[in-house]
Amino acid sequence: MKKLLLGNAAVARGAYEAGVNVVASYPGTPSTEITEEIVKFEEIYAEWSPNEKVAGEVAIGASIAGGRAMSCMKHVGLNVMADPVFTVSYTGVNGGLVFCVADDPGMHSSQNEQDSRHYAKASKIMMLEPADSNECKEFTRMAFDLSEKFDTPAFIRLSTRVSHSQSLVELGERADVPVKAYEKNPAKYVMMPGNAIKRHVDVEKRIADLIEFAETTELNTVEENGSKIGIITAGIAYAYAKEALGDSADFLKLGMVYPLPEKKIMEFAKKHDKVFVIEELDPVIESHCKALGVEVCGKECFTLLGEYTPTMIKKAVLGEEAPEVLSADEAIPVRPPVMCAGCPHRGTFYVLKKLGLVVSGDIGCYTLGATPPLQSVDTTICMGASVSAAHGMAKAQGAEFNKKLVSVIGDSTFMHSGITGLVDIVYNKGNNTVIILDNSITGMTGHQENPTTGRTIRGEATKQVDLIALCKAVGIDRVTVCDPFDIKKFEEVVKEEVNADEPSVIIAQRPCALLKTVKYSGTCKITDKCKNCKMCMKLGCPAITLKDGKVVIDATQCNGCGLCINVCPFGAIEKEEK
Amino acid sequence: MTKNIMIVGVGGQGTLLASRILGNTVINEGYDVKVSEVHGMSQRGGSVVTYVKYGEKVYSPIVDRGEADVILAFELLEAYRALPYLKKGGKIIINNQQIDPMPVITGAAQYPENIAEKISDMCDTTVVDALALAKDAGNIKAVNVVLIGVMAKSTDIPYEKWIETIKTTVPEKFLDVNLKAFELGYNI
After folding, report:
1. Cβ contact B105–A33 (<8 Å)
2. How confident is the model at residue A567 (pLDDT cuts 50, 70, 90)?
3. Nearest CA to CA, how far is A358 from chain B (Å)?
4. Cβ of B40 and A109 within 8 Å?
5. Which of A107, A335, A363 to mutate to test the interface with B (most CBs of B within 10 A)?
6. C-alpha A135: how far from its chain's center?
7. Which residues from B are below 8 Å from A4, CB to CB?
8. Residue A319 φ then ψ, to 5°
């Protein structure tokens, strides 16, 4: 049976068919839907872990105990998980172990466009890279077998266009793979120097074996069309190259991107007058070819930046110019993403901007607090950095700086890696104010549960982390809960806390407007009391706009949250019930 | 020959559902299909672009400039922005709705005037007031299905096939509204 599946859903299907037992992940675009799809299979234990390192370790434990296990993350999530990855490479596995990492060339929803293939090489772990949904399913299924066969974890590398494209998948049955017996084996699993020294020998032997495997595996295929042009490529770049060049080139498509074959590449190159390596982001395959002494054209012909297109490839390989196209003969305003109408973060940033504070930001919907008109956020680095970086800022600038500095971090991000920064502030006598933006959900990735929501990935009730008790337990005595839509009160609280002589936490509590449980009613409307002062427009609400110089509220955009009513100095905005 | 359809709009308008209905309909016709979606940050009120490609064999999931047979635009400015993707002789269907982007709201940029007329002068254009039709169907959120209806008429896929997909893709609660919305778009 064939079905149209998202690449991510196909990875989940592949894991299901491979008989996976345990899947633990932290959400991150473009990887999130893999684990969300896993949940649809009742046979599989699934969880959202607090962060990628925890998730990876849960999967590692499951594998050592004899089950087949998987952990899925976005590229930057692999940075968080990197610590156990490098060592589980040494221990190897019991049950098959797969780490699925999704890169984001073009940065559709990321803070950098790092190339995860470097991790495979650095940690000496094999990596497969599918080019469409059917390969997503097949490669994932195979990865579990290969993991057990070669006693290694296996990476699956995805990219946004593979993860988020639907294509046809041939469905198979779930394999009956019983959980293996657990056997104590300290020489393999206790990585202290005496044991690790021996395991490193095994790792190098394994890589040599995998290079041999790379020469013969069907994962690496040659497609001959009788051309003098040879293309070496992998993953989504293959799809673009094939679309662009069709039968006018020969292809060496690498389904395994680490380790790479040697003889196979040299033989392929020998048969062609000109060889191109087509790969998005870094010259990983290209560098390998050049180290083998194979002459290829890689980044001299293609960019290191962003996503590729078939048109770009046609131009570089065949010299074909792009077609002439229609276009507007005037400037078209950009449409950057914005906080939704009704977003609870809008109240927070309105106040922070009004107070002119330096805002140490973090990763989530609230990163959008950096965009006009709120333009409140000063920094965004990585998950958790808002808290620790603010501590560093204050240490560099001096204690007075704390009076004009806050950190903002979401509930899920705080659980991910904000807590350790808060501990640092307390331990090292910092005096920062941290605002936890508690919107009752993991927002940007599309509503995942987290330890503060009180529900598991399957929606079952569970113990809820008490943010107040948690902050107090690490030594924060000043913890205040405040609704960011109560603008006046929220402003008072922020002023008071930044001026306090000890560290403090403000929990800005209001649920995400897109949650089904949030029911705002009616729409807001400007009345004739309006003096056109445009105060409400400072909120940057997508529903409030100007028409012929007058402020109007677009009823198709407004969800009736009422924040604008709270900022209007003339009482000129009213709620109109539908 | 591959047929390339591009769906553009503003995050939150329901372009994703539209591309899924489209994808599932053509798959039932026995084509190879690729549907490219957008998730994450770009969904939050930003420009959203999805692609549906079908034919004997489809490789790339994206539609390049000058390659779209049909552009289905949920919003005027997004139609204007997508214009370079239209193939020579291609068709554009535009929902006659204006949603101001933040740079226009803040006064940093101006929303171009008479977009629909300007596009009509350049290529085969159908302008629809999908919002009004969705209201007639009973829910303004059915704009996406109205537009699918308009587009469906210009394909050679039979009417019943579309109805079948809508029945399997849309939650039952909203089925009647969506069927009516499709009908209104189809018969425009």
Report:
1. no
2. very high
3. 22
4. yes
5. A335
6. 21
7. 23-24, 27, 33, 35
8. 75, 15
pLDDT at B146: 96
How far off is chain A from B44, nearest CA to CA, in Å? 5
Domains of chain A are 2-216 (3.40.50.970), 220-318 (3.40.50.920), 345-509 (3.40.50.970), 523-576 (3.30.70.20)
Q: Using an 8 Å Cβ cutoff, are A430 and A360 in contact?
A: no
Q: Distance between CA atoms of A485 and A330, rounded to whole angstroms?
A: 39
Amino acid code (one letter) for A206: R
Range A168-177 average pLDDT: 97
- Domain ranges in chain B? 3-186
Torsion of CA A466, A469, A470, A472, to 10 degrees: 160
The interface predicted TM-score of the complex, written ipTM, equals 0.94
Instruction: Using alpha carbons, select from B187, B186, B1 the residue that is nearest to residue B87.
Output: B1
DSSP A374-434: T--EEE--STTHHHHHHHHHHHHH-GGGGGGEEEEEEHHHIIIIIHHHHHHHHHTT---EE
pLDDT for A36-63, tens place per residue?
999 999 999 999 999 999 999 999 999 9
**Residue of B8, B17, B60 for testing the chain A interface, max A β-carbons within 10 Å:** B60
Burial degree of A382 (CB within 10 A; 0-12, 13-18, 19+): middle
3-state SS class at B88: strand
| B24:A311 CB<8 A | no
Within a 13 Å sphere around the CA of B185, how many CA atoms are in the beta-carbon half?
Answer: 33
Across the interface, whether the CB atoms of B61 and A167 are under 8 A apart is answered: yes
- List CB contacts (< 8 A) between A322 and chain B: 65-66
Domain boundaries B3-186, corresponding CATH code: 3.40.920.10
What is the longest distance spanned by two Cα atoms in chain B? Answer: 49
Structure tokens at B96: 């006659």
Residue A123 identity: S
The β-bridge partners of A404 are none
Give the pair of three-digit tokens for residue B167. Answer: 């029945």
